[in-house]
Specification:
It catalyses: beta-D-glucose 1-phosphate = beta-D-glucose 6-phosphate. With 218 residues, this protein is α/β, with parallel strands linked by helices. The protein has 9 helices and 6 strands. Strand 2, helix 6 and strand 3 form a beta-alpha-beta unit. The chain starts with a strand and ends with a helix. 42% of the residues are buried. The site of 6-O-phosphono-beta-D-glucopyranose (BG6) has 17 residues, from helix 3.
Length: 218
């Protein structure tokens, strides 16, 4: 029986991915390189440390440990500048309606984001009150696709993983949900998350009855 829904934040509830993109692009340009939108897609759902490692590998560049640390810091400073103006109007379509519908149906709600900035984003959007549990990047030691983040969230919700569903926009998040033994819903405009149990282009399309059926059929 479906008892809880766990949401990723970036790309599912709010479109912060363009701000991550702008900050990474600015960082790569400061190093005399560049970053295309396509290259940026590989960073979706990936931690900031792993993102910089990937970028440097992609561009055949290397930096010292100290430079690495200061680049990470700089990217985050720029990212935080970009999100300073976030507000309720940046919530993606269908998200608030879905959160309200799920709560009205008596389901528990969790938020599980790899971002260490998740709480700031949640506060700026004013959506903290919808969630019974929030897990952010500072509470985990293993990034998605490891299931740690979703298992921790289910534990805080006091629900069994098999009765939780996950809404995710990143392939690494879908893998994490699968490994956690949770039903996964891929939320992505291109509809390309083939490993997800269900796929929607936005939360507007989410069908709770179908999702419940999917959980019951397992
Ligand atoms: C994820 C984003 O939610 O959080 C990634 O999809 C980002 O793009 C990751 O790198 C870590 O975020 P932050 O804010 O801690 O650097
Ligand atoms: Mg995401």
């Amino acid at each position: 029986m479906l008892r809880a829904c766990i949401f990723d934040l970036d790309g599912v509830i709010v479109d912060t991915s363009r701000y991550h993109f702008l900050a990474w692009k600015r960082l790569m340009e400061s190093l005399g390189s560049d970053l295309s939108e396509e290259e940026n897609n590989c960073l979706r759902g990936v931690s900031r440390i792993e993102s910089l490692r990937l970028l440097l590998r992609m561009k055949g560049m290397s930096v010292t440990k100290e430079q690495f640390e200061s680049l990470i810091e700089l990217k985050n400073t720029w990212y935080r500048e970009y999100i300073a103006g976030l507000s309720e109007k940046d919530i993606l379509e269908g998200a608030l309606e879905l959160l309200r519908e799920l709560r009205n149906k008596g389901l528990k709600l969790g938020l599980a984001s790899s971002s260490k900035n998740a709480r700031e984003v949640i506060d700026r959007l004013g959506i903290g009150m919808y969630f019974d549990a929030i897990v952010d990047g500072s509470m985990i030691s293993r990034a998605k696709p490891d299931p740690q983040i979703f298992l921790l969230c289910a534990g805080l919700l006091c629900e069994s993983p098999s009765e939780c569903a996950v809404f995710e926009d990143a392939a690494s998040g879908i893998e994490a949900a699968r490994s956690a033994g949770m039903v996964s819903v891929g939320v992505e405009a291109e509809n390309s998350l083939e490993r997800a149990d269900m796929r929607v282009r936005s939360l507007l399309e989410a069908d709770i009855d179908k999702l419940s059926e999917c959980v019951n059929l397992r």
